[in-house]
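User: I'm curious whether this sequence folds into something compact or stays loose and floppy. Could you predict its structure so I can see for myself?
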Amino acid sequence: MAASTPESKPAERVGGSGRKPEPQSDEPGFKALFHAWLESHRASLIDSLKRLGKQPIGSFFTCLVMAVALSLPMGLALLLDNIERLGGSWQRAAQISLYMELDVRNEAGTALREQIADWPDVADAAWVSREQALEEFQQLSGLGEALRELPDNPLPGVIVVTPREIDRAKLESLRQQLAELPGVEQAQLDLVWVERLSAILKLGDRFVFGLTLLLVATLLLVIGNTIRLHIENRRTEIEVVKLVGGTDGYVRRPFLYMGALYGLGAGLLAWLLLAYGLGWLNEAVVRLAGLYGSDFALAGVPGEDGLSLVLGAILLGYIGAWLAVARHLSELAPR
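Assistant: Here's the prediction. I'll summarize afterward.
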């Protein structure tokens, strides 16, 4: 009688491991997805650089036009800052002059100056004696010989007070307090030219702000039109990419990098134009200031402002490219 053979089990087949196979996951891991994302951005960046490099003259002049538009408002803003610095500190521009009575001696004037200098609202105080005032008046007026014929010195001693804060209401209150001090004949505060200069500077700030808005709109139009031309040149390629399943983000990415690269080039050129322009203008300013006995010189472009200019240009290029692609993306459907 033949022995019965047991039925073979799947785990007992030749070459079997005796364990059930683990299910395989077809979804890629986070590392693979992140690597693919980086590779896609790298490829888009390199492609944009190559396309700009194939048209160096056109790309340069596009960046140059953007650079001129960027440098105008920042150049005006830097000039306004230098004008404000040229006007001197606001504290010294709004000094309060205390004209003392004629019988106040130098010792009393010096003591009163020290007392005023300790006030919390006062930054500095200087005593000008009657003799010093007469000497300065003789030099400035050109009437030295005539003034020497006078029997007595008609000029009083003066305490020049420099306030800590420029505020019309606070300055008027400080002037009234100083006018009530013993020995003070008159306290004079002249803020007319300070207010005029402040009004001119505020007008300049508004003008620069309005000009900046106009030029930003112009930059968006320039970069948008440039990207639109690139889109038209690659219309067939884009339609094929979308036909095989390319997403809008994949299609948009190279143009966004191109806009950012245009902005980077424009920002660096604008920084260079501003640095060269201010340096060229500074030679004439230093020569003119030297004729007036001043060592004033134009300040260059601060590093922080230059970096802000470059980053702002990159952002404008990116936004302009985004708007251009978003407008024409619906027209790029495969036919």
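Summary: Confidence is low (pLDDT under 50) at residues 1-18. The chain is about 65% helix and 5% strand.
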